[in-house]
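Morning. Coffee machine broken again, so started the prediction first thing and wrote up yesterday's gels while waiting. Chain of 79 residues, entered below exactly as on the submission form.
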Amino acid sequence: MTQETDSLSFEAALKELEGIVARLETGDAALDESISLYTRGEALKSICEKRLKDAQARIEKITLGPDGAPTGTTAFDAA
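Came back before lunch.
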């Protein structure tokens, strides 16, 4: 990733990626432009995946006791 892409938020990266996908789906881009768009899309996809993985690592699940009161937290389990 570059410094430019490292500073993108998840939402900004996803929005740009959606625009690239829409542009590629039209089939109007020349071959060289399509290759550039695809390359940028791959970088944006990596950003989104990294941001999601980082967020998932920070999420904690609140555990409740038999009386329904919070008893602590455990790490997020994606399974």
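The helical segments are 3-6, 10-26, 31-58. Going to sketch it on the whiteboard this afternoon.
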